[in-house]
Write a structure and sequence with these properties.
Blueprint (H helix, E strand, L loop, with lengths): L21 H4 L12 H8 L9 H4 L7 H9 L3 H11 L3 H7 L11 H4 L7 H15 L14 E5 L3 H12 L3 E5 L8 H4 L8 H13 L3 E3 L10 H7 L2 E4 L5 E2 L12 E3 H12 L5 H4 L9 E5 L3 H13 L3 E5 L11 H9 L3 E3 L2 E9 L2 E15 L5 E5 L5 E4 L2 E4 L3 E2 L3 H5 L26 E3 L2 H4 L4 H27 L1
Parallel strand pairs: 1-2, 1-4, 2-3, 4-16, 6-14, 7-8, 7-14, 8-9
Antiparallel strand pairs: 5-15, 10-11, 11-12, 11-13
Helix pairs in contact: 2-4, 4-5, 4-8, 5-8, 6-8, 9-19, 13-15, 15-16
Length: about 475
């Protein structure tokens, strides 16, 4: 009888891919984790307990068949593992890199609860698909039947691209409208290379282009083309713009030079990484080199900013967050990586204004906080400690306070496009259909700022609903 390849979590310890030392990795924007070797990936996959109720799968927004592809990896059937992974996720190699596994699949692993250390699901997921690219298993999409109907997608972030992938597999013609000069949305310009190297995104975009998806770049809906014109050109339209309007911070001195938005700061850094000449970087406006940097916020965007500032050569980098470590929304793994690289976290600290020297910021006025009673979300509310204010010196302040939706009905002149009280596009959370017939919405513009993996799920669901809508329209027309 063959030896059981799984259930080795008792004898085999949890192991992550080799992480480059902090001193080395903070000198560049390359990814910090090495790839698993084949033997190590097989070994770590074999730790899966193949439990009867896979909480890793149920806590994954895409409900990826994680136990199945772990078993296939452990038994050397890597191509099948890739096919199972790709069946539920358009971009498993991207999720393997940037998903907060500690809050999703790995954080709910059964063997973690028993004290054996979670299976390294994200690293194995990344390994499977990177190997698939190397081996040529990732193929151009070739629909069984080519159809004449067309779909327009506004936005080329994870939701839009996931929908484009699924719609092309259904044989529909797809055009993606993107206001930037490169496709990819936040994956391209909002996430630093040390978390997601850009060739990983570019090869997926190239795959879609070779599969027949048309990308219209530098196209700002409402200016270069009207929303009604896009509707008139296509049988159905998907709004997948994401949310890009930064939450602002008021208070004394808020208009001083040197106080910048996280999205501007990260976009500039990523453009420089592409070799673009960016005036704001050259002038020092969006460059942390030689500066004392303070980042305000505790989410993943704040982690991206502090780690970018370290790599740009800041003399010091501090992150202010109004709650404590246990209550921060960002990935604990990213917080640890930032600390290793020299970032100092100032917990229970909230800004109330800014100090300035002339027209430029010189510091952040900080209020010390304590945690009081839980709020409606169940998290303890921060309360001000009176008389404990101080100034945190800073030459550059980055506001990473989250994002809100733009006013699309006004920007696009889209009469009938309903929005919620938060400004997100109002759409059904199953079909993603809006109040306008044939118009759908997915990702952050529908659910608010969230994770890439949720946008991928929304994009796939919306694509399926659009196919059904187009099929029904074709059926009625044929009668």
């Amino acid at each position: 009888m063959a030896k059981e390849p799984m259930l080795k979590f008792v004898t085999v310890g949890r192991d992550m891919p080799t992480k480059r030392s902090a001193d080395v990795r903070k000198q560049d924007f390359d990814e910090i984790y090495a790839e698993f070797a084949r033997e190590k990936a097989d070994e770590q996959a074999s730790r899966c307990s193949q439990c009867g109720v896979p909480y890793c799968q149920s806590h994954c927004p895409l409900h990826n068949n994680i136990p199945d592809w772990l078993r296939l990896t452990a038994t050397g059937r890597l191509k099948e593992a890739y096919e199972i992974s790709q069946a539920t996720n358009a971009f498993p190699e991207i999720c393997g890199r940037i998903c907060p596994q500690d809050r999703l699949c790995e954080g709910n692993c059964v063997i973690e609860q028993s004290g054996h250390g979670t299976v390294t699901i994200g690293s194995v997921e990344k390994y499977i698909t990177d190997t698939a690219w190397e081996e040529g298993w990732v193929e151009v999409i070739k629909p069984a039947v080519e159809r004449e109907e067309t779909v327009g997608i506004i936005g080329s972030g994870p939701g839009g691209l996931a929908a484009a992938d699924r719609l092309r597999r259904a044989g529909l013609k797809v055009t993606v409208y993107e206001r930037s000069d490169r496709a990819g949305g936040l994956m391209m310009y909002g996430i630093p290379g040390f978390k997601l190297e850009k060739d990983v995104v570019l090869r997926r975009i190239e795959q879609l282009e070779k599969s027949g998806v048309e990308f219209v770049l530098n196209c700002n809906v409402g200016e270069d083309i009207t929303f009604d014109a896009i509707r008139g050109k296509h049988d159905a339209v998907l709004i997948a713009t994401g949310v890009y309007k930064s939450r602002d911070l008021q208070g004394p001195g808020a208009g001083a030079a040197g106080i910048v938005k996280a999205i501007d700061y990260l976009t500039c850094s990523n453009r420089v990484g592409f070799g673009d000449t960016v005036e704001e970087y050259e002038s020092g406006e969006l460059n942390a080199a030689g500066k004392k940097v303070v980042v305000i916020g505790g989410g993943d965007t704040a982690m991206d900013c502090v780690r970018t500032a370290i790599r740009q050569g800041a003399t010091s980098v501090k992150c202010l967050y109004r709650r404590d470590r246990a209550n921060m929304p960002g990935s604990q793994r990213e917080t640890q990586n930032a600390e290793e690289e020299g970032v100092e976290f100032v917990w229970l600290a909230a800004p109330k204004g800014f100090a300035a020297a002339g027209d430029s910021v010189s510091g952040v006025m900080v209020q010390k906080m304590r945690l009081g009673q839980p709020d409606a979300s169940g998290r303890q509310s921060p309360e001000v400690i009176e008389g404990a204010d101080y100034i945190e010196e800073a030459d550059l302040v980055v506001k990473a306070l989250g994002f809100e939706p733009e006013d699309l009905p006004t920007l696009w002149g889209a009469e009938g496009l309903d929005v919620t009280r938060w400004g997100t596009v109002k759409a059904d959370f199953t079909s993603h259909a809006t109040a306008i017939e044939g118009v759908y919405a997915c990702g952050d513009i529908q659910r608010g700022a969230s994770l890439v993996v949720w946008a991928i799920r929304d994009g796939r669901e919306a694509a399926d609903a659009m196919v059904e809508y187009i099929n029904q329209a074709a059926s009625v027309a044929a009668e």
